[in-house]
């Protein structure tokens, strides 16, 4: 307990008795009676041969139960095991290489490291660090090509994470880093540690081919990343049809079914090859395992097919569509829960272009705006 706050009252013996109170704060001064604690108690680390001087090998983690003025900053010292000065230890507890290690020269080093706190008198503790020198990479990283589809409402794309590169390496201790060619950084970024791709705001309609590479420190491998950006037109929202799927997650739909269903859907609803199918959004149905897919079809001449025409086409081809994925319903209007005479209702659809949903898999990522459906009776 670092302190106490007492309320002391003094009362006299008169009639009536009178009193007053005072607050007494008692601070307990800390004595430096706790040694620094390493977490874990001892360490094991690896470094590949031929890594450059200054390569980070290990971060030491030290805590102290004493108050802040009796704890950090800590002073780190390598007591034994570094007679040839192969290692350095900086004031933050980062162990680095001071030479270029060779697996044939030595495969293991054991260091005894001391941590000393800032109290008076100083307290110390020790840990042992085992460093193994392993052979350099012999396997190149492998990465899966990624295709990203972004749907945005005209020039209103806010930016954000749009996908993630999936890469592996058969060398167990390899650390992979990701880079993007510098001239593309005005539109996109790639997180160097985890491969997440970030798009900046205001992307234009079109196709972007990103020059991304993954490196294990020795080998560098290019990755095919293609980004398709489609900007919605307001007229699309007035001519949408919703297909509701049963028992499928957005990620499973994107990764397993989207390409095949899109191809089957085109064959079912397009009157001419030059017509364009636009998937506007996919969104889980709240409180269920269902999934809504919103789409519209643009004629070669520029206009859009009416929902009633599309629904008729879909109804005729429903059995064929369900060979790809199970369909729960085909909706033009959603009067669910409304007691409308003969199910007459008016539906309005709104798009929140600043609330993006990203459904990412290893090979395909789909980024779309959230949509809201509002209905009212026309009785």
Automatic annotation (TrEMBL):
SUPFAM superfamilies: Cadherin-like. GO terms for molecular function: calcium ion binding. InterPro entries: Cadherin-like_dom, Cadherin-like_sf, Cadherin_CS. It comes from the Eukaryota. Its main location: membrane. It is found in: Membrane. Keywords: Calcium, Membrane, Repeat, Transmembrane, Transmembrane helix. GO terms for cellular component: plasma membrane. The keyword Membrane applies. SMART domains: CA (SM00112). PROSITE patterns: CADHERIN_1, CADHERIN_2. The keyword Calcium applies. GO terms for biological process: homophilic cell adhesion via plasma membrane adhesion molecules. Residues 4-38, 39-143, 154-245 form the Cadherin domain. This is FAT3 protein. It comes from Cettia cetti. The gene is Fat3.
């Amino acid at each position: 307990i670092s302190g106490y706050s007492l309320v002391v009252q003094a009362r006299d013996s008169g009639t009536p008795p009178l009193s007053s109170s005072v607050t007494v704060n008692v601070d307990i001064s800390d004595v430096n009676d706790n040694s620094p604690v390493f977490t874990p108690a001892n360490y094991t680390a690896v470094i590949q041969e031929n890594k450059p001087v200054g390569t980070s090998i290990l971060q030491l983690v030290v805590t102290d139960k004493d108050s802040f003025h009796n704890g950090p900053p800590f002073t780190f010292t390598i007591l034994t095991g570094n007679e040839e000065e192969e290692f350095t230890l900086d004031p933050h507890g980062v162990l680095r290489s001071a030479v270029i290690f060779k697996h044939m020269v030595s495969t293991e080093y054991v260091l005894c490291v001391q941590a000393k706190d800032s109290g008076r008198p100083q307290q110390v503790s020790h840990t042992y660090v085992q460093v193994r020198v392993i052979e350099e990479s012999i396997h190149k990283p492998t990465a899966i090509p990624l295709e990203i589809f972004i749907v945005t409402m005209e020039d209103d794309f806010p930016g954000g994470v749009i996908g993630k590169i999936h890469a592996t390496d058969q060398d167990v201790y390899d650390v992979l880093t990701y880079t993007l060619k510098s001239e593309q950084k005005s539109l996109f970024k790639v997180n160097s540690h985890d491969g997440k791709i970030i798009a900046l705001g205001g992307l234009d309609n079109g196709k972007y081919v990103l020059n991304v590479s993954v490196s294990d420190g020795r080998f560098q491998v290019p990755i095919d990343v293609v980004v398709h950006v489609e900007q919605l037109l307001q007229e699309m929202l007035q001519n949408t049809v919703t297909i509701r799927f049963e028992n499928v997650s957005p990620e499973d739909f994107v990764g397993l079914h989207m390409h095949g269903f899109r191809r089957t859907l085109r064959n079912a609803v397009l009157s001419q090859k030059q017509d364009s199918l636009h998937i506007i959004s996919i969104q889980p149905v709240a409180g269920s395992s269902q999934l809504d897919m919103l789409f519209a079809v643009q004629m070669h001449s520029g206009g859009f097919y009416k929902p009633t025409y599309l629904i008729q086409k879909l109804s005729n081809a429903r059995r064929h569509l369900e060979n790809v994925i199970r369909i729960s319903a085909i909706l033009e209007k959603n009067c669910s829960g409304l007691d409308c005479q003969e199910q007459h209702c008016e539906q309005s659809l709104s798009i929140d272009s600043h609330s993006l949903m990203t459904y990412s898999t290893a090979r395909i990522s789909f980024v779309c705006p959230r949509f809201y459906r509002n209905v009212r009776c026309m009785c």
